[in-house]
Design a protein that fits this description.
By secondary structure, the chain is an alpha/beta fold. It is built from five helices and seven strands; from the N terminus they run αααααβββββββ. The chain has a seven-stranded parallel β-sheet. About 25% of the residues are buried.
C-alpha cells in the first residue's frame, strides 16, 4: 500500500527531508581519594591533589591511578576512538571495510544521511553513541541480513528517517523509544513477532511500515502515536487489534490485508 510520505521503496537519492547516578564534584573528589588510598596502600587527603603531591611508590601504581582518575572525572574518556572500534568490527572483511570508509566520511563531512543498504551486513558496529555520529538524521539500512540492532542506535536523537526494509530482525530494542524525533520508520519484510511497548514514545512518527512481518499482536501503546498518518500492517498474523488504535485520529491510511482478523475493535469507528 502507499500513502503520502511513505517510503517503502525509497533510496537516498530521493532526498527525503523531514523535519550510575551523577556525582557532585565534591563526591567525585572523595571517591577518587578513597580509590587512590587503596591503590597506594596509604592515606591521602582529598584536599591535596594526590597525583602531584603524594608520593608514588612505583610506575605501575602511578599508571593505575591516572587511569582511575580519568575514568571517574572525565566521563567517556576510557572509550576507545571511533575508528578503532570500526576497524575491530570490520576485521579483514572487505565489505565491512568499505562501510567503515562510508561511516568515517559521514563524520568528516557532517552529512545528515548515512546509507549502508544492499551490503549483506549481519551486524552493525555499536558506535552510534559516539558524538561524531550524533548529527545523523537519515539512516538507510534496508536489504541487509541484520538480525538485531545495537542499543546505541537509540542515541541518534536527531534521527528522523530509519529504514530497515528486508532484513531478518526478530525484535526491536526497548531503547528504540528514545528516538523521539523519528518521523518515518520502515520495517517491512522482517521477522518481527512483537513490538516493544516503547514504540508508543515515538510521538513524532508519521509513517510506520510493518507489512510482511510475523506480528500476532500490537502493543496498546501504539495508540500514543497521535501524529501517525500511515500505518501499514499487510501480511502479518494479527488476530486482533488493540482498542487504543482508535486514538490514531490523524491516520489517513491503514492497511490490514493478509492477516487473520475476525473482528475489529469498536474504537476503529473513531478514525
Amino acid at each position: 500500500m502507499s500513502f503520502p510520505g511513505n517510503i517503502p521503496n525509497a533510496t537516498p537519492n530521493q532526498g527525503i527531508l523531514l523535519t550510575g547516578n551523577q556525582q557532585s564534584p565534591a563526591q567525585q573528589s572523595t571517591t577518587t581519594g578513597h580509590i587512590i588510598e587503596n591503590a597506594l596502600g596509604q592515606s591521602t587527603t582529598t584536599n591535596t591533589p594526590p597525583l602531584t603531591t603524594s608520593p608514588i611508590p612505583n610506575p605501575v601504581a602511578a599508571s593505575m591511578i591516572q587511569a582511575i582518575v580519568q575514568t571517574i572525572l572525565i566521563p567517556g574518556s576510557a572509550r576507545p576512538p571511533l575508528q578503532d572500534v570500526l576497524n575491530q568490527w570490520a576485521g579483514n572483511d572487505d565489505n565491512k571495510i568499505e562501510k567503515v570508509a562510508l561511516i568515517l566520511e559521514c563524520t568528516r563531512n557532517q552529512s545528515s544521511r548515512l546509507n549502508l543498504s544492499f551490503s549483506n551486513l549481519t551486524s552493525l558496529p555499536d558506535v552510534f553513541g559516539y558524538p561524531e555520529l550524533s548529527h545523523i538524521a537519515e539512516l538507510f539500512l534496508y536489504d541487509n541480513q541484520l538480525t538485531a540492532l545495537p542499543d546505541s542506535i537509540s542515541q541518534l536523537t536527531a534521527l528522523r528517517v530509519l529504514t530497515l526494509k528486508n532484513n531478518q530482525l526478530t525484535t526491536l530494542p526497548e531503547s528504540i523509544g528514545q528516538l523521539t524525533a523519528l518521523q518515518i520508520l520502515g520495517l517491512e519484510g522482517n521477522q518481527l513477532t512483537t513490538l516493544p511497548e516503547s514504540i508508543g514514545q515515538l510521538t513524532a512518527l508519521r509513517i510506520l511500515s510493518l507489512e510482511g512481518n510475523q506480528l500476532t499482536t500490537l502493543p496498546e501503546s501504539i495508540g500514543q502515536l497521535t501524529a501517525l498518518h500511515g500505518l501499514s500492517l499487510d501480511g502479518n498474523q494479527l488476530t486482533t487489534l488493540p482498542e487504543s488504535i482508535g486514538q490514531l485520529t490523524a491516520l489517513q491510511g491503514l492497511s490490514l490485508d493478509g492477516n487473520q482478523l475476525t473482528t475489529l475493535p469498536e474504537s476503529i469507528g473513531q478514525l
